[in-house]
Amino acid sequence: MTRKPFVYLWAVLLAVGLGAVLVADHHEDAADHAGSYDIRATAIEACSCPLFCSCYYNPTPTGGHHCEFNLAYKFEEGSHYGDTDLSDAKVWLSGDLGGHFGGGKTKWAVVTFDNATTEAQRAAIGKWIFRVFDVEWAEEPVMRTDDITWNDGEEVAHAKMASGMAEVELRKVLDKDGNQAKVSNTGYWFSDSNEGFLLAHSTHHFNGEKYQYEYDNHNGFMITSHVSGEVAPEPQGEQGTAE
Predict the structure, then answer these.
(1) Which residues pair with 159 in a beta bridge?
(2) pTM of the model
């Protein structure tokens, strides 16, 4: 009984000390991250081409008139843009690249942020999108929010918007040992690197914002891509101060 006050005091001092260390580490990490970004994102991806998508090797899609797509992303643990943590955040891109995108000109896109994301995360994700998809859209991309579910199973991957506007199911192409077919050494948009295209047959649709399409047994894959770099300074006003 006589030792308890000492034990309690030691525990309090230890907790305070650890708390101070953790706070210091947090501030140091935030300072380290403030001027840089490092992002890994995994996509559940589907489009209107047959398996495998020719768009990664040619400036025109199969059929030569459109490339309609659904791309559901989840950001991997530790991903950040500046001091904004993106771990487990989700975003969905739907749209049409058009019939010829060799010059970086595309048709339209709808960007759907998961309702769980914060304003800071949405701003950071928007910068990531234009870093990875450095193209010119004929129509200004539409921005909206929804509840997004994202699941990667052993044989099937699935993503869906709660509103029903879009959904993707990927049936993975597996060998006799359960290993998924993979395409390596192929670039993914303007990302710095990727871990390979894990192939699947897709069923997906989009219905909203004046556009509608639906495909069964078409191209699909999962891919984890990576970008990193320095955060560009925010634009300054004429007097050198932010407006």
Answers:
(1) 150, 168
(2) 0.81
